[in-house]
Design a protein that fits this description.
By secondary structure, the protein is of the alpha/beta class. The protein is built from twelve helices and eight strands. Helix 5 links the parallel strand 1 and strand 2.
Length: about 250
């Protein structure tokens, strides 16, 4: 099994970047979302070189440039969702902060409504799937390079206020399953009874960002373990105003 220079698997490497007061929902979803491209199956087991090479062989993912200069298309090809876009933006924010750069990014309306508040980005509304560079270079720098060694800087959110001098207990957003109208999607979920024990080491308040919780957690394990539940009517809202309201709810602003 191939590992990166830090000896971490894909899940561990990205998890390290997310044990902060921001959602972890994208982690499990991206690790298990093997239907997007076979390369993700290799990334999930720490075979970074093979996984990234498979992504690069896909015309929709291909990017042979070594730099992190935009414009970047934040969405994952054939798997567009603003969870993935925020994951990529969070990784790119480390580079922007370290290099004092402003990066042009192409994103959905919902994510543009968030990133427009962040001086590290020049967000542009996505009009096609062929605009800009794919996020491959960002994943390559995160998994094989030094990007995750750069200082973590939270994305600026709507109505953000200066950091409080009072220590606040961190919050971590979680999700573990992709759910369709007919139930859990094969190869795109982690059984909740196996997922929750992995988080016992976190000294943080857990917030469920899981859609269709009645399907993903039919026995109510998350609620019984004290996970704060965000209801479907809030999570399913997709307008920019609703997304901004959800961000403010999660960040406590």
């Amino acid at each position: 099994m191939l590992r990166n220079s830090h000896g971490l698997s894909f899940g561990q490497r990205l998890a390290d970047s997310h044990l902060r007061p921001k959602p972890l929902s994208c982690l499990v979803k991206d690790v298990t979302d093997s239907l997007m491209n076979p390369g993700f199956q290799h990334l999930a087991t720490g075979m970074f070189q093979i996984g990234l090479a498979k992504l690069d062989a896909d015309p929709e993912w291909h990017d042979d440039r070594p730099d992190l200069e935009g414009p970047f298309r934040l969405s994952f090809p054939r798997a567009q969702g603003w969870g993935e876009e925020l994951l990529v933006a969070s990784l790119l924010k480390r580079h922007a902060d370290a290099s004092k750069a402003v990066v042009q990014v192409i994103a959905s309306e919902q994510v543009c409504s968030i990133l427009k508040h962040d001086p590290a980005f020049l967000p542009k509304l996505r009009e096609s799937d062929k605009e800009g560079r794919s996020p491959l270079a960002i994943l390559r720098h995160a998994l094989m390079g030094k990007l995750l060694d750069e200082r973590f800087v939270p994305l600026a959110s709507p109505g953000a206020t200066p950091p409080s001098t009072i220590d606040r207990r961190p919050s971590v957003g979680i999700a573990w399953a992709s759910v369709s109208s007919s139930g859990l999607i094969s190869d795109k979920f982690v059984p909740v009874e196996r997922f929750l024990p992995l988080l016992t080491c976190l000294d943080a308040d857990l917030i469920s960002l899981q859609r269709k919780l009645s399907v993903a957690d039919p026995n109510g394990l998350a609620r019984s373990r004290g996970v704060r539940i965000i209801e479907d009517e809030v999570l399913e809202a997709s307008t920019p105003a609703a997304v901004e309201a959800l961000v403010e709810l999660l960040t406590g602003q």
